[in-house]
Design a protein that fits this description.
CATH superfamily of the largest domain: NAD(P)-binding Rossmann-like Domain
Order of helices and strands: EHEEHEHEHEEHEEEHEEHEHHHH
Number of domains: 2
Distance between the termini: 24 Å
Structural class: alpha/beta
Shape: globular
Largest sheet: 4 strands, parallel
CATH topology of the largest domain: Rossmann fold
Strand order of the largest sheet: 4-5-6-11
CATH class of the largest domain: Alpha Beta
Radius of gyration: 19 Å
Amino acid sequence: MVTGAFGYTGRYIAKRLLAAGAPVKTITGHPDRAHTLGGNIEVAPLDFEDQDGLARSLEGADVLYNTYWVRFARGTTTFDTAVSNSRALIRAAERAGVRRLVHISITNASSESGLPYFRGKGLVEEAVATSDLSYAIIRPTVIFGPEDILINNIGWVLRRFPVFAVFGSGDYKVQPVFVEDVAEIAVAAAQHDATETIDAVGSETFGYEQLVRLVAAAVNSRARIAHVSPAVAMWLSRVVGYIVRDVVVTRDEIDGLMAGLLVSEGPATGATRFSEWLEQNAESIGARYTSELSRHYR
């Protein structure tokens, strides 16, 4: 069982499972969305308010791969509701007799964080850890790959605007990890019952400005790199967001980056080098804007 198999990380997990011949079912907020996963994949709606239906959907599942979360609050969907929904999913998995939960979180999640995104992720990790399920928590940094949002949209801005705004000094670190590597780590974590928390991190660490300049070179951008305050960066992002009808970046994402929360103190667990992938995929990076609102809300 994969939550959000038609999304991003969930899709790569589902593809890997299908390629191995495993029967896959997804519970998704977009049950009618067309997909190109191939193979036979059973689809059920993800309705957190129907606890009985959620448990029935999970019956027969050996492993639940949970990728559900929200990138930002929108309308009635807040980080608090996302935490509550995640707890409902965990309870449903317990009722359904799921053997193993593989939960996708984020590096440096903490229920004591002052950033709502990281705090919410930390609260869900605590709910996983206190459940009756065997579990593995996978903590990726910034995920890159085809159709990713952050790296692709950095490329999109660099291709189209004369200036690219880097918030603050730009020397804070980021350790990108390939989406296929995250999927491989997640699938491998389901093969046993040991309790574990694994940071899913790439083999290269960059300063944020260094990463932006690498992307700029790959897409042949002539944009000037300008250092601005986080407040100015947010204002500029809202201007671009108005143009593309999307939320380009959130204050939590800016603060999390600047606080160094998207790196790990542990060893690299992803084999794919970002610099090599960037060189191999330069033509497609930023060719089209990737919209979070279109992917999840429209």
